[in-house]
């Protein structure tokens, strides 16, 4: 009997797990669960006889792949797969997949939750500002960017986007103004929402040069990855500019500096929360389970990321 291991340091909602179990057991497979593990060894022990894995931001390193001798497929229930060692998976003939778009609306809603909180001065009783009429720039117009644009339009914002991989026509059909360069996006928009993946090219790419282009009252919204931010540059810029604010779904490495220097101008979720809704857990978890069954039963490799 095939064994599917759900290994999630940050567990899915119970309602999602029940549905995942239904799909896995309905296919005649066995479901094993490892949640909230505290040491890498627990993961190494759990993967030994797993034929398939469903993970979230869990680190699937070369060591994990080597320990998972029976593994044929790992599905990251989510969008960003920078936590998977794709080279190790390929070398071991393990198919790696993600579930693009499944948790995108949840992430987009969190971006606005954090924005509203900061423009209302953390609800401290003083007069804040509104989002209506302001310009928002979407840096990378993928699934999350699409939902950010939709919500922003509901708020009455002007929406711009930069993404060299998405056609201008697609953006314009969504009522989004495409801009030709990343610099133009930052120069134009008081609010910039990041949706780029963490890759060797994007790491530390959100730097002083780019951020200093942003207009007065700037706010950077990061529901992407902390690695894409040049954290020292961000601290430098916020020290120079008292108008600059930063909200992030990921605590930066230097969070104490923010606490010491920038009270009221930043917010960080204590744990990555963008995809932490029942709906997103169901969407991404169920998609992952279905992809595993389709892979074993029909050889379906749609959403494979280590081609
Ligand atoms: C993603 O890449 O899908 C999001 O960052 C969500 O990550 P999580 O599943 O660890 O919450």
Automatic annotation (TrEMBL):
Family: Belongs to the D-isomer specific 2-hydroxyacid dehydrogenase family.
Limits of the D-isomer specific 2-hydroxyacid dehydrogenase NAD-binding domain: 123-250
Keywords carried by this UniProt record: Oxidoreductase
Organism ancestry: Bacteria, Pseudomonadati, Bacteroidota, Bacteroidia, Marinilabiliales
Signal sequence annotation: none
Start and end residues of each D-isomer specific 2-hydroxyacid dehydrogenase catalytic domain: 38-306
Organism name: Breznakibacter xylanolyticus
CDD domains associated with the record: PGDH_like_3 (cd12174)
Molecular function via GO: NAD binding; oxidoreductase activity, acting on the CH-OH group of donors, NAD or NADP as acceptor
Pfam families assigned to the protein according to its UniProt record, in alphabetical order: 2-Hacid_dh, 2-Hacid_dh_C
Name recorded for this polypeptide: D-3-phosphoglycerate dehydrogenase
């Amino acid at each position: 009997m095939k064994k599917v291991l759900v290994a999630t340091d940050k567990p899915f909602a119970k309602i999602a797990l029940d549905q995942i179990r239904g799909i896995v057991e309905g296919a005649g497979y066995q479901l094993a669960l490892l949640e909230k593990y505290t040491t890498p060894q627990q993961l190494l022990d759990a993967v030994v006889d797993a034929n398939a894995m469903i993970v979230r931001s869990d680190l699937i390193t070369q060591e994990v792949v080597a320990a998972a001798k029976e593994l044929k497929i790992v599905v990251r229930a989510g969008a960003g797969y920078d936590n998977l060692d794709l080279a190790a998976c390929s070398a071991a003939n393990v198919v790696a997949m993600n579930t693009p778009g499944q948790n995108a609306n949840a992430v987009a809603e969190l971006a606005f939750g954090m924005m509203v909180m900061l423009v209302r001065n953390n609800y401290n009783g003083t007069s804040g500002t509104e989002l209506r009429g302001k310009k928002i720039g979407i840096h990378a117009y993928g699934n999350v960017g699409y939902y950010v644009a939709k919500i922003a339009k509901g708020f009455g914002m002007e929406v711009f986007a930069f993404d060299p991989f998405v056609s201008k026509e697609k953006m314009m059909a969504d009522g989004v103004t495409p801009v030709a360069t990343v610099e133009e996006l930052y120069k134009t928009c008081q609010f910039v929402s990041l949706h780029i993946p963490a890759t060797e090219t994007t790491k530390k790419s959100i730097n002083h040069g780019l951020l200093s282009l942003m207009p007065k009252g700037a706010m950077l919204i990061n529901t992407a990855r902390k690695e894409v931010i040049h954290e020292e540059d961000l601290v430098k810029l916020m020290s120079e500019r008292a108008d600059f604010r930063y909200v992030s779904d990921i605590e930066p490495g230097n969070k104490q500096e923010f606490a010491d220097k920038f009270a009221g101008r930043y917010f960080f979720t204590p744990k990555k929360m963008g995809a932490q809704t029942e709906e997103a857990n169901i969407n991404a978890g169920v998609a992952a389970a279905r992809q595993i069954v389709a892979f074993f039963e029909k050889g379906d490799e749609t959403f494979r990321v280590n081609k």
